[in-house]
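Provenance and format

Records in this collection were gathered into a single text stream. Each protein contributes a sequence line and a token line. The two records reproduced below are adjacent in the stream.
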Amino acid sequence: MSGKTYLSDIDFRLLRVFKAVAECGGYAGAELELNIGRSTISTHMSDLETRLGMTLCTRGRGRTAFALTEQGSEVYAALLLLFDDINSFRNRVTSIRSELTGTLRIALPDDWLQFKRFDLAPVIASFRQKAPQVELEVMAHAANEIDFDLLNNRADVAINVINRPHAGLESHFLYRHHTSLYCSEKHPLYSKQNIDADDLRSCELVGASHTVSEVIHHLYNQFPKRAVANHMSGRIIMILSGCYLGFLPDYYAEQWHNSGELKRLDVAGFDYTMDNCVLYRKGARDNPLIDLFTQAVFQTFDIADQATSPTDLITTKHS
């Protein structure tokens, strides 16, 4: 394609279509995301490519046949920055009007409800009292997904464990929790006495597909046989089957441990602690909605508002 590139107001609509196509991996997924027909999406994409003077993606049958071109990948990266700037502009205008409106997207770990110490209900109530016109969108994702939600502008603020440091994110410490290795009452180790590290390594482990620190990576690598469950609900089901061991936060495992359905395997070196923080994109605290939500968290739980350094705060704890 060649010729001059003409951009107009309508291109924002076309760019949103392209963003959905790129993130959904093709037209079929974008059809559900955008709630428009595939033929309409195809027309919009062709129109956008004509306006930009370049081919953005390759098309074929099936999801695997779809791919962004090199230019398409660069346009998508620039598009994320553009939408971020648009959101910043909108939030700045909102703050000038002194009336908080818009949408705040909050990402939380999928096991958050089990953590009784940090009840977010009063945080939400405090935020809504000060910003009744703001629409809240709460999403529950696996811990290894949440950083990408922020970096890819799918979420504005999050509460999550500290993953590997990323220059694009800022974090503020909230709390620390302990994670242990568990088996179910159906597992052979449940009734075994004097369990050692070799007993553990002979078993199959279920865990996340991506570890969030070198410490956890080292622990996972001690198990030659592993299965994958990124979400905590899937992990507990597999552990309760009696076929797998698995690392679980103690607060999450508490109800099954107290009922005797789970046993904590207290072997030295097979547990760890994790720090949890409020996270947002670097510089996003200038967004009045993010700032108000963050303040509500700190005030509700009486925590000092201090940024953490971008280091890996996950450490082992030897029993």
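Adjacent record:
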Amino acid sequence: MNTIIKVIDRLFTKLEINNLGSSHKYRAACLIIEDALRKGSIIPGVTTVIEKTGGNFGFGLIAACHPYGIPVELVVGLGFSQAKRDLLECVGAQLIGKHLLLSGVSPKDVVSVHLENQVQLGKSYYYTDQFNNPIGIDAHRYQTASELACQLIDAGVGNKLLFVGCAGTGASFTGITLGLKEYGFDVSTVLVEPFGCDSKEGLFTDHRFEGMAVGVSPPFLDWSLVDRRSQVEHTEMLTAQGWFHQLTGIYIGYTAAACVSVAQRLISLPEYADTTCITIAYDAGFWYQN
């Protein structure tokens, strides 16, 4: 199990950066691949996995596919970190469609072009389609949340929790919240977004918080589970990232640091005086270019 650490009194972080692929996305990637293998949708030696991803889900797919010898082709939007793009290729993925992306074609449409022309390309693709694949919710509901609940019980925390998280697909936010509630915790939640973004209303601005407010309303986010929302400036996130590193020696990524920034604000409020705050270290910060 990926451990939780006590950052300060009543603030805990679960280190999902310790997963294979170095992020929480490995859980969904692994479950999706295992499900497709079981159903025969993926045949090792025949099938190539294809996905559009900003990085973390791609690393998860590479780790999940490698034991079966399944090649992975990824469409990575040009706005994402070049460091991530380079590393994805270094660890085994083939990045495809760059010329189409440069001409203005969206990552989704690049995938569609490849799927439509797979026979001519000599491919047999399986599209994991993380934004339309609900298996991701199960990965976090029955794995992440289950581990986290047991770890919190072992740590002796009280019943009242404040989960501060973010949403790309919304699968982790929804799955973790549902899972913790099913373990009997009294869970309140906060959805963190970059300053100027409102995912519910479909309002997005340019930002550097890869993995949240990704340009579409999170398809798997159950909005009835969101108790409050909070926005974070880039400079606030950087301050929280440095603070977390000084206390723990762990250099978390931008989305994780944004959630820590909000947790810092809220934990001192009187309404949360008897509440334990939980954040997720979704990934590490080394490949984010400031």
